[in-house]
Amino acid sequence: MTGEKSDIIVPKYDLDAKWDACVDLTARRFVYASVAGTFGGLLFFRSPVTRWAAVAFGAGIGMGSAYTECSQKFDGFPTKFPPAVPKEGQE
Fold first, then answer.
1. Which of 15, 27, 61, 62 is the most exposed place for a label (fewest CB within 10 A)?
2. How many C-beta atoms surround the C-beta of residue 57 within 10 A?
3. Which long-range contacts (CB under 8 A, 24 or more apart) does 42-46 make?
4. Are 44 and 54 contacting, i.e. CB atoms less than 8 angstroms apart?
5. How many CA atoms lie within 13 A of 42 on its CB side?
6. Would you give per-residue pLDDT tens digits along the chain (91 residues)?
7. Is 50:41 a contact under the CB 8 Å cutoff?
């Protein structure tokens, strides 16, 4: 214990915390969206097949939104357009 702070990891590179946050986020969104799909299926549909489809759709929405947010946590926000480079002779 020399008192140096060389053991501290910069939050940008702390992969353990990012993975923990992503697993937690994925589990919560999967469960909440599945429950929402279940209630929606019970409310709007009579057939068991369409009710299961509503549950699966809700689970897919939850997984997709968690994947989007986790990819932003790991890679940062993607740029939609490349940076504008002025042509020669123009300012």
1. 15
2. 16
3. none
4. yes
5. 5
6. 455 555 676 666 667 778 888 999 999 999 999 999 999 999 999 999 999 999 999 999 999 999 988 888 877 766 666 666 767 766 5
7. yes
**How many Å apart are CA 74 and CA 14, to the nearest integer?**
10
How wide is the angle at C-alpha 36 spanned by C-alphas 31 and 38, nearest 5°? 95
Q: Assess contact for 66 and 33: CB atoms under 8 A.
A: no
CA distance 52 to 10: 44
Look up residue 55 and give its two tokens.
């549950």
Instruction: Give the DSSP per-residue string, the chain.
Output: -----TTPPPGGG-HHHHHHHHHHHHHHHHHHHHHHHHHHHHHH--SHHHHHHHHHHHHHHHHHHHHHHHHHHHH-PPPSSPPP-PPTT--
Distance, CA of 37 to CA of 48 (rounded, Å):
13
